[in-house]
Amino acid sequence: MQFKCNQTLPERAIHIALKGPGGTCQRGDGTNCFIASNVATTPGDMTERGCTYAGCRGVVGGPVKDAIQLTHGPIGCAFFSWGYRPHLAESDFHIKYTFVSDMNETNIVFGGEKKLLQSIIEANAEFPDAKAVFIYNTCSTALIGDDGRDVAKQAEAIIGKPVVFFECEGFRGVSQSMGHHVGNETIFRQLVGSVEPEGDFSRSINIIGDYNIKNDIRTFEYLFEALGLRIIARFTGNVSVDDLKIMHKAALNIVHCQRSATYIADMMKEKYSTPYINVTLWGIKNMAQALRDTAAFFGLEARAEEVIASEVARIQPHIDAYRQCLQGKRVFIYQGGPRVWHWIELLRELGMETETAATTFGHTDDYEKIFKQIADGALVIDNPNVPEIEEILTRRRPDLFISGNKERYVAYKLGVPFVNGHTYDTGPYAGFVGMVNFARDIDKALHAPVWNVLHQHARPAPADRRTAHGFEEVPG
Amino acid sequence: MTSFLTVQERAVAINPTRSCAPIGAMLANYGIHGAITINHGSQGCATYPRHQMARHFREPVEVATSSLTEKTTVYGGKQNLLAALKHIWERFHPTMIMICSTCLSETIGDDIPAIIDEFLNTYPDVTIPILSVKTPSYIGNHTTGFDNFLKEIALNLPDRRKKKGETNGKLNIIPGWVNPGDIRELKRILREMGLRGLWITDYEETLDGGYYNPRPHFPRGGTTVEELRNSSKSLATIALQRHIGGEAAHIYEQRYNVPAHVLTMPIGLKNTDAFVDTLIAITDHAIPETLEVERARLLDALVDTHMYTSGLRVAFYGDLDLLEGLVGLIAEMGMTPAYILTAADNRAWGERMVELTEELGVESEIILKGDLHELHKRIKQRPVDLLMGHSKGKFIAEAENIPLVRVGFPVEDRFGYHRRSIVGYNGAIALVDEVTNAIFERRATTVVSNTLIETGVEGPTDIPITLRNGAAHHP
Hints:
The structure holds two protein chains of two kinds. By secondary structure, chain A is of the alpha/beta class. Chain A folds into three domains: 52-190, Nitrogenase molybdenum iron protein domain (Rossmann fold), CATH 3.40.50.1980; 204-308, Rossmann fold (3-Layer(aba) Sandwich), CATH 3.40.50.1980; 327-423, Nitrogenase molybdenum iron protein domain (Rossmann fold), CATH 3.40.50.1980. Helices cover 43% and strands 15% of the residues of chain A. Chain A contains 20 helices and 15 strands. In chain A, the strands form three sheets. A seven-stranded mixed beta sheet of chain A has the order 2-1-13-12-11-14-15, with helices on both faces. In chain A, strands 4-3-5-6 form a four-stranded parallel beta sheet, sandwiched between helices. In chain A, helix 5 runs parallel beside helix 7 and helix 12 (284-298) packs antiparallel against helix 13. By secondary structure, chain B is α/β, with parallel strands linked by helices. Chain B has three domains: 4-14 and 289-473, 3-Layer(aba) Sandwich (Rossmann fold), CATH 3.40.50; 21-140, 3-Layer(aba) Sandwich (Rossmann fold); 171-265, 3-Layer(aba) Sandwich (Rossmann fold). Helix content of chain B is 44%, strand content 13%. Chain B contains 18 helices and 17 strands. Chain B has helices at 21-29, 44-57, 70-75, 78-92, 103-107, 112-122, 142-156, 180-192, 225-230, 246-256, 269-283, 289-309, 320-332, 347-359, 372-381, 394-400, 424-443, 450-455, and strands at residues 4-7, 13-14, 35-39, 64-65, 96-100, 130-133, 171-174, 197-199, 236-239, 260-262, 313-317, 336-341, 365-368, 386-389, 404-406, 465-466, 472-473. In chain B, strand 16 and strand 17 (472-473) form a beta hairpin. In chain B, helix 1 (21-29) crosses helix 2 (44-57). The chains are: A alpha/beta, B alpha/beta. At the A-B interface, helix 1, helix 2, strand 4, helix 4 and helix 5 of A face strand 2, helix 1, helix 2, strand 4 and helix 3 of B.
C-alpha cells in the first residue's frame, strides 16, 4: 500500500510491508528485504513512540509494589508517569504515590546530587515500610553529569535498604524499548540473588514479562498453581522487592512479554542456569500450550490436561457464542510490540482476521513472529505515525481497531470501532476466562448502536466563517 | 482572624500538583486554527503530554517531536529540528508552527531561533509564522509554558502597522488555562453584551469538537493567524489570569498601545462582576438583562445552599490563578478555605492571598511549594469537609473519605469536565450546585461537618460569625 501521507516522507517506505505469498516480505521500497525496525524515528513524523524513561519507569520498574518510585529530574517526567497505567497489585502504594527530586534551574546549574540524596532520605523517612527506593534518571540530570550511582550507594548505607538506580534517561535508544532493557539489567544486577533463602524450590516458577494490567494474573496464576507449582516472582506485575531478590531460585522461567523481559530470562540462564520457555498467555490454544509446555518441564502432563479440559469447558460456550457475532471481521492491531503477534491466533479463535498489524517499538524478532502468523496480503507497519494510522482507518476501513488510549479518539473521530489493548476497556483479557472479557468488549465495540446513529445521521462540518474565508473584516 | 503563609521545605516532591512547561505551550497552540507543535526533545516529552491531554479532553491530540537521541546530545539537535520542520511543513501545510523546547534541548544549548532562521532561508516559500517558546521542565511548571507561549504570540504576531485610531472593534481576551467549556461561556457573555472577542487563544472547539463526516483536515475552530495579526488593533486586552497572559496583555499595551486589563479569574460573584464591569467600562455597553438575571440566580443559589455550606472547611490546590479565583466563590458560599496549596514558589502571590483571605473574612493556611502528600498530612492532622482540585487529589479523597469536587487540569477520571464551565455567573451556579450535592452525596440526607464531628460539638456552634465591623464573634 502506498500511503498518500508519505509522499514527502520516503524514509517511511522501508517500515511498511505486505505479507506476500509464501510468507515473503514485500517492502514499501520495492525490495523483498525484511521490514526495518528498532531504528531512530524520522524527526517530525508524528511518531507515537515514547522514551527510555517511559519504558523503564512506566513499564518495568513502576509495577513493583513496595518500592518508592523516585524520579531524579524535573517534575514533568514524574507527573506524567503517575497513576494512569493499571499495573495492579494487592496493594496500591506504587500507583498512588510518585516521588521526584524536582530539579529546578539552580539544581541544573549546580548539580542535583545533594538534592537527590536528601530526597531519598526524606522519602524513606515518610514511608519507612517501603522495601527499596527505585531511582529513575532523566535527560537533564544525565546531561549535567550527576553521579546517581554513587548517590544511590551512599543512600543505601544511610537508609539500610536497596537503592536501585536506573540509567533510563529519555534520549537513550530509539524508543521506550531501551528502557525495558535498562530496567531488566538494573534489577538483575542490583536485586536478583541478593538473598539466599532456604527451602525446596524444585517445583517453582517465575512469570516473566507480565505487568498485571487490570489483574491479568488472576486469569492464569491459579492455573499454574493447579499444576502444583509455586510462583516465586512475577516480573514485574504484583511483585514485591523481596520476591525479586530470590527469583533466581526458580526452577523455570516462563516468559510472556518477550520484548520487554527476555533480557532478564537470558541473564538468569547465563548466571544461574535457569531454563526458560516462551509462552503466550492470551487465547485458548496459546494458553493451553503454555500450560502443556510448563507441565512437560515438570512431568505434570496429565494434570495439565485435566486443568485445560475443565477450563476450556467453562469458557467454550461463551467463545462459541461470540464467534457467531464476530465471524469474518477484519482487524487492525497496533500495540507496543508483542501483543500484536500474541493476539493474531486469539482473534482467529473468535473468527476474526488481522488485516493490518503495527508495533511502536517491535524488533526484528517481533516482526518475524508477526509474519509467521499473519495471513497473506496483510499490511505490516513499524512505528506508524498519526497520519498513517488515519489513512489506514479511512482507506482500509478495518472493522475493528485495537490500540491504546491516544489512538482511541482518532478512531472515534473516524467512526471506527475501537478496543483498548494497552490498558483494556474492562479487562483482564489474559488466560481462558479473560478471553471472554476480551470477546465481550470486542462485541460491544463492534455492535454498539452508536455506529448506526453516526453512519445514518452524521453530517459534514459546517463551513467555519473565519477559517474558510480567512479573516472576517469588521464592517464600518 | 488571621491567615498565614507556609513554605513546604522538603527536597523530595511526593505527589506533585503540577506538571511541566511544554504541555502548556502545546495546549495554548491548540487554540490556533491549523497550528502544529514540534516538541524539540526526547520523544517522551511529546508523547507524555499528548497522552495526558487525550485523557482530559477525550480528543485526538497530535504533537510532533524532533526525536532527539544520544547522538544529538553530543552533536546538537539542529539537524533533527531542521528535518522535523521540513516534514511538518511539506506534509501538513500548517498555518503556523510552534516549537517548544525541553530540558534536553535547553541543556545542550540548541539555539532554536537560529535554526528557524536557517530553515526559512533554505525554504523561502514558507511564509507561515514559526515561533519558538522556551519550555524546559526545570523552570516553573505547566502554566509557565502557556504563559511563555502567550508572550511569544504578543511579541511576534500582531501587526505593528496601525493607523492612528484604527480599530477592529474587538476585545482581546486571554482566558488563560481554562477548559473549552469556560471559553464557550466567556464567549456567550461577550455575545450577550453585544461585544466581539478576539481570543488568545481559543481551543473551545479544537479540543471539544464534534463528529463530522468527513473529518476536517484540521479540527474546526481556533483563532486564525490572521486574527492574531489583527489583534494589535483591538480596543483593549483583558487577561483573565494574572500569571497566564498577564504579561502578554502588558506587551500589547506597551507595543501596540492596546490598553491592558489584568483581572482575577472570574469565578464567583465578585470576580465575575469585576469582569463584566471591565467590559462595561471599556465599551460603554450596559449589562444586558440576561446577565442581570443570571447574576440574581447566583445570589439565589448562594442563599438557598448556605445552610449546607456555611462553615465547611475546604482544602484546594492547583494553579495560582485558579486558586485565587476560587477562593472568592468559596468565601461567598460561607466556607472556610482551610488549606490553599500550590506548587509554585511565589511569595508575592502568597502574601496577596493572605491579604485577600483576610479581606474576605476567612482564615487560611496558604502553602507554597506544596505537594499533595503535604496536604494529606495536614488533613490528617485537622480534617476538612471537602477537597477541590484536579483528579490527582482522588487518592486523598479516597483515603480520608472526603468528597472531591474536580476543578482544574487534569480531570482524567471523570467524563466531560472539559465541557463544563466554572467561570461567569452560570459557572458559579454550577459549582455551587456541585459542591452542595457532593456534600449531600456523602451525608445522604443531612449535612454534618466532618470538622464538627471531630471536635465532638453538636450543631454549628463553633463556626465564628463575622460581625459587620469585621471582628469575629465566637458564641
